[in-house]
Amino acid sequence: MVSPGPHFAILTLLLTVSLAASASLEENFIQCLSFYSDKASPFSGTIYTPKNASFNKILESSAQNLRYLVPSAPKPEFIFTPLTDSHVQVAVTCSKKLGIHLRVRSGGHDYEGLSYVSEVESPFIIVDLSKLRGVEVNIEDNSAWIQAGATIGEVYYRIYEKSSVHGFPAGLCTSLGVGGHITGGAYGSMMRKYGLGADNVLDARLVDANGNILDREAMGEDMFWAIRGGGGASFGILLWWKIKLVPVPQTVTVFTVTRNLEQDATKIVHRWQEVAPYIDDDLFIRVIIQPATIGNKSERTITTSYNAQFLGGADRLLQVMKESFPELGLTRKDCLETSWIKSVLYIAGYPSDTPPEVLLEGKSTFKNYFKAKSDFVREPIPESGLQGLWQRLLEEDSPLMIWNPYGGMMSKFSESDIPFPHRNGTLYKIQYLSLWQDGDKNASKHIDWIRKLYNFMTPYVSKFPREAYVNYRDLDLGINKKNSTSYIQASSWGNMYFKDNFNRLVKIKTKVDPDNVFRHEQSIPPLPVSRMSLQDKKCKTWE
Ligand SMILES: Cc1cc2nc3c(=O)[nH]c(=O)nc-3n(C[C@H](O)[C@H](O)[C@H](O)COP(=O)(O)OP(=O)(O)OC[C@H]3O[C@@H](n4cnc5c(N)ncnc54)[C@H](O)[C@@H]3O)c2cc1C
Ligand SMILES: *[C@@H]1O[C@H](CO)[C@@H](O)[C@H](O)[C@H]1NC(C)=O
Ligand SMILES: *[C@@H]1O[C@H](CO)[C@@H](O)[C@H](O)[C@H]1NC(C)=O
Ligand SMILES: *[C@@H]1O[C@H](CO)[C@@H](O)[C@H](O)[C@H]1NC(C)=O
Ligand SMILES: *[C@@H]1O[C@H](CO)[C@@H](O)[C@H](O)[C@H]1NC(C)=O
Ligand SMILES: *[C@@H]1O[C@H](CO)[C@@H](O)[C@H](O)[C@H]1NC(C)=O
Question: Which CATH class for the 135-247 domain?
């Protein structure tokens, strides 16, 4: 544990006196930073206000959802880009002291822009961790320390640089920031073999609500449990994760096979639901579903693309497919044998000769205006349901669905091992998206469409609660009201993301951040009765 300084209380007093009421927030923040900062790590050039020419460039840099960059979206007072862990620590201390709401951003992929826009509270600032991207791989120890601002692609690259037979089971999209990604679970093409990124975390370092840096031992097992799946920005600011590397074979096989409605897509997808969650753990076959025009036909059809990674060679893959899923008709020609790192690029959608070094650019390939939702499926959807779904997809301009198979290792963890509860009994997860490029003028049309689709799907998906993936943040499920931290109100979305783990998350939040320093529209609320229960305890001791 590293505390902010020896004479903290006295310094605090002096600082309070010296902060000028007439100065701007940013001037006060700078003054506070210089007051608390260790002189060895200067912070000049780390604060961008709207007056700086590069403000927009920095704001937009990693922001994924263009919906939250439109001119009407609230903008931060300034963006702070820390250069050291202690800068992050001081940012927490100073934002508390000055009463400025703080948002933290690692990779900027939040579906509702929560890392760079605050709709409910102003003024706010962004602490952007993009300059904190260390990755230290230790092959002998099968582990790595990875810093919050690194992308998951950089992590994969640094592992590959040291070994061709080690990997890490996390996201498919390589521009995800590990700070936000792993706090919500982090699934990818090796989830059926090794579970989630969050299932493979050994240790962590974070800045807590008091501005202290804590590792696993210092934070204790409750808080260490909460940060591995409890969602971003509720418990502290993650600085580093220590992750466990997993073995990958020298040869990995990938394929993408597409079938449209005229090629029996409905029957094959129906069959996929029964097969993909139970097939060999080395095989991950996701389905990407969207409307498309084929050849010179004027009408759109539905295309279903089976996009797969197999941890092994093509011969064994073909054997597995022949035994378990002959309906897809996979052939040797469809299969590409490659290395694990190239399979990562393939699944992420890079063109075939892209060198792995592209991962070091940390750039995203996917920026859109979008709205998304998620569901978990526990019983195969009947063909009639699939047909209704196709009909609705054909009514929208640019919809997309991605179905990810569960089973394998995902079923072997209990629902309470980490806060991510979607385990045994889950066949697959659906992600629904509507994408558009023409700004916000038709946004409500697309959002209405996806809400109606979500209603249509009710009978086919998980119930009591209807489950949702916290990393596919969806504010339609409810938001924390600005004037209260009502536990009852938050339990609607809380139970969807975390099931019974929500109660434990609330208890831990109440213990580690009772004043709700780390908050956003869907952060875990502390119980307002915390002080009362402390008093209860006192009474009992007194008795
Ligand atoms: C194109 C795309 C592809 C995706 N693919 C996958 C996938 O394959 N698998 C998967 O599991 N998910 C996927 N996701 C979802 C992704 O995991 C989440 O959006 C995740 O939260 C992104 O983390 P980030 O750091 O990039 O985002 P950010 O927007 O920076 O952060 C997300 C949330 O975490 C908070 N946060 C950020 N940094 C920290 C920190 N250091 N400490 C504490 N809280 C923090 C933010 O305030 C925000 O609330 C995808 C998202 C997109 C847009
Ligand atoms: C932003 O502008 C101010 C005032 O001109 C300057 O002092 C500061 O260094 C600039 N910030 C960055 C990151 O360049
Ligand atoms: C459409 O394509 C088919 C072959 O794919 C061809 O036979 C046919 O003539 C084409 N029709 C038109 C109107 O171009
Ligand atoms: C998963 O649940 C099924 C019953 O629903 C049970 O038969 C099976 O043993 C469970 N698997 C694990 C790994 O717990
Ligand atoms: C988008 O909105 C404009 C103006 O409201 C409308 O004319 C146009 O048809 C819309 N586009 C689509 C694809 O709906
Ligand atoms: C909080 O706000 C809601 C309206 O958004 C209002 O009805 C309620 O009375 C407020 N509660 C408190 C405690 O102020």
Answer: alpha beta
